Amino acid sequence: MIATPQKVARQPNSEASLPPSFRNSHIGDQVNLYGYSFISAMPVSSSGQNLINTRLANSWNKADCVVVAANAGVVKGMSGGAVYNASDDTLAG
């Protein structure tokens, strides 16, 4: 039996744009989430819109931490990937 190649979810970056620049997302921005499924170890992705952008200050963090929530679909076990702003392909987190 011959194995067929799997479709890989990834953010295409041209060599001129590496490393990608960082921009904090704003409320209403479209975002693309990339990661790996803890269950299948395959790359997964999801897209959505930012719903909130605030700061979190607690005893665990030395400085205020940016907290963003999005309505991007949940992929079971998704972890460890980057978040890109869809409008300009900047890194959001």
Entry summary:
The chain has 93 residues and is an all-beta fold. It has no helices and 5 strands.
Notes on the protein architecture:
- With 93 residues, the protein is mostly beta strands.
- Helix content is 0%, strand content 35%.
- The chain contains no helices and 5 strands.
- The chain has strands at residues 30-37, 43-56, 65-70, 78-79, 83-85.
- Strands 1, 2, 3, 4 and 5 form a 5-stranded antiparallel β-sheet that branches.
- The chain starts with 29 loop residues before the first strand and ends in an 8-residue tail after the last strand.
- The mean pLDDT is 78.
List keywords for this structure.
93 residues, five-stranded antiparallel beta sheet, mainly beta, 5 strands, globular
Q: Give unreliable regions as ranges.
A: none
Query: Which class of secondary structure composition applies to the elements?
Result: mainly beta
Order of helices and strands: EEEEE
Q: Tell me the total number of β-strands.
A: 5
What composes the largest sheet? 5 strands, antiparallel
